[in-house]
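quick one before i forget lol
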Amino acid sequence: AQLVESGGGMVQPGGSLSLSCVASGFTLRDYDMSWVRQAPGKGPEWVSSITSDGESTFYEDSVKGRFTISRDNAKNTLYLQMNSLKPEDTALYYCSRGDVSPPVILSTTRQYWGQGTQVTVSS
């Protein structure tokens, strides 16, 4: 099983980025999926999750109203649309197989993550 993230980059505060995560080696529609991020010098932080059918979504409080998680099971792809970005959103963003929202201990789930894509928000 493999997850490959893309779409990261550098953007000014208030800007937008759209992340993608392509899954291979397993059938995406069989799994809930999540986004996780890790800022420099900090532990990993759950960002958002979506159910396998895409009907339900969940967000960490600091990104509610700014980020949108979605999926296209036919394309085996997970997305994260990020608007109104803030400097504190700067991190390496990973997609993860499964729902890794709290109280899941993120450090135990790294084998289910991709390699990550860097998001930097700076003026």
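fyi Strands lie at 2-6, 9-11, 17-24, 33-38, 44-50, 57-59, 67-72, 77-82, 91-97, 117-121.
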